[in-house]
Amino acid sequence: MSALVLLVILGAVAITAVGRRWIHQSSLIVVVVAGAVSFIPALPRVELEPHLIFSLVMPPLLYSAARQFSLFSFMRHVRAIMALGVGLVVVTTAAITGLALWIAPALGASGALILAAVVSPPDTVTTVTHGRAIGLPRRVVEILTGECLINDAAALTIFAVAASQVTGDEPVIANPVVLFIYSAAIGVLVGVLASIVTSQVALRLPDDSLATALTVLLPFVAYLAAEEVHASGVLAVVAAGFTSALNATFDERAQGSPLAYRLRVRELEVWPVVDVLLEAFVFAYMGLQLRHVITELAADAAHIPLVIGLAAAVLVAVMAVRAGWVFLTFGRWTLAYRWRARRAARGGPRVRARMAALEERQRLAGLRADRRREGRLERIDQRVDRAESVAARRPDSGPGRAAHARAVALRAQAVQLRQLGGSAGPGAGSAVAGAGRAGPGGRGSERGPGRPGRTGGPGSGRANGGPRRGLGGAGTQGRRGGGEPMGWQEMLLVSWTGMRGIVTLAVAAEVPGSVGAPGFPGRSVIQAVAFAVAIGTLLIQGSTLGFLARRLGIDLSGEDAAASDAMVQGKRIAEAVPAAGFEARRTAVRAAVLRGELDDQTATRILRGLDFEEAARDT
């Protein structure tokens, strides 16, 4: 079996390489070719245990997607993501349950609920990877990616409750809502803790190869640890990916470690390779099940018409329910947004009073934040004094070098705090320069211009009317993550991206053996319908998504121009302090994100470029 799996991966990679010459979504070609190959008579069945799919295939794919995604983008679109990742899963489950009971009442309520939970979560991570090349707007790609990172958790919770009714096993928590809340909260906590511990241990290992190996194991550790405490392994992996990405970009504690940038470079080289191998295998595995699903279904010829009718009905239903939910939910938000805009434009007395109260609350909050910042800066100054004193006494020893690195990181942190508060003044540039690597003899305690005063210059802070902008950067949208409402073209694209994937097949393989009335092949029916829905949505929606995006003709020139301008601005920020060194340039870019001058995704690309430049100089 191991040799056969290896041959499947090699063949899938070869087909992917050939397919990418013609289309971006070469995975569709892999599915079709694998389906045809499955009918070779002498070919044995390639079948993995469901727990292997969940514990070995899903974690690295989810982790890599979360690392490449932006937590700030997730929070900007959190309402839309939750509406699709949780709300739509529940609505789809309810609709498919009713439909299955109507068409195949022999399934019973539990069997219908199991079928609905199996087919409810879309899996479009591998499809939206090429979203921009296909022609999807950036906002659509972000919402779909966020949806795919959380919808499995909701579907698996429903499946666990339904399966326990069939098997008689009691779930950890009987109430499904409480079970989901527990599973999500503990799963996120486990993922964050696993990522923090892994990053701290990795930076203390003797070389970057060992550290990279440890970070590659992180998604598996997070998933299995969460499952051991009956929490969501899916959300644990996603939380670990988000935390790792944030640590790589914004954690000042790693700035003094020479291993940090080499580790980041290694991870950028490793995870794309893992993605290619696993994605190729996933789609090949799906296609190779075709002949065997048909064979199992043909064993009970009396139920073939029922299965075909149920599969067709469920396939149409999952696409229709998604379209209806998207247009109903996003359309309602669009109408509400336009109504509020018209009301605000009229500007009645109540609206003006509300805006005045909001501005006063923001002013008071800014004053409190300034006081907290002052106290934190005092403590940082004291720690810098102690570190510089140690570095001056023992400049060439290990503790002295560590103290110098700690002082550099602390001074960079102080620069960020001052710039975040708008109090950097004319000395900001020199402050950033002072945070970088010192030249010869630069380990003394003399701070000079690197420690500017704290009094704000003209135009500093929010007190002078500057907008308070969050960590999302210049592209931050409204406080609920809605921003500008979606047009009907974007709604149509979101509604047409309901492709099912490997998760649907893996969950179907875990269906209990006795589902439905006695004498009714409930398990084989559910598996056949799940396979038909997964392959049907991939071939119908996946193959036409690019054509639909082109026909809609959504103008992406504004997005491309904004991204180009952001890159130019980010490079200008990074190159403003070239003499200060690698760490100070990273600090300047991070500070620009915190000030809202640069969006986090652009900053991540620039920081990656700095890492590669430093790695090239280090070789």
Describe this structure in words.
With 619 residues, the protein is an all-alpha fold. The chain has 24 helices and no strands. It is globular. The two termini are 42 Å apart. The model is unreliable at 423-482 (pLDDT under 50).
The end-to-end distance, rounded to whole angstroms, is 42 Å
- Can you write the helix and strand succession as a string? HHHHHHHHHHHHHHHHHHHHHHHH
Number of strands: 0
Query: How much strand content do the residues show?
Result: under 5%
Shape: globular
Q: What's the overall average pLDDT, rounded?
A: 77
- Class from helix and strand fractions: mainly alpha
**Largest beta-sheet characterization:** none
| Unreliably modeled segments | 423-482
What key phrases describe this protein's structure?
globular; 619 residues; mainly alpha
Summarize the structure.
With 619 residues, the chain is mainly alpha-helical.
What is the topology?
Elements lengths: L1 H18 L7 H11 L12 H19 L2 H6 L1 H26 L4 H12 L5 H4 L2 H4 L3 H30 L8 H27 L5 H21 L4 H18 L8 H30 L1 H9 L5 H43 L2 H45 L4 H23 L7 H7 L53 H8 L6 H8 L12 H31 L4 H19 L6 H14 L4 H19 L1
Helix pairs in contact: 1-2, 1-13, 2-13, 3-11, 3-12, 3-13, 3-20, 5-6, 5-9, 5-15, 6-9, 6-21, 9-10, 9-12, 10-11, 10-12, 11-12, 11-13, 13-24, 14-21, 15-19, 15-21, 16-17, 17-18, 17-23, 20-21, 22-23, 22-24, 23-24
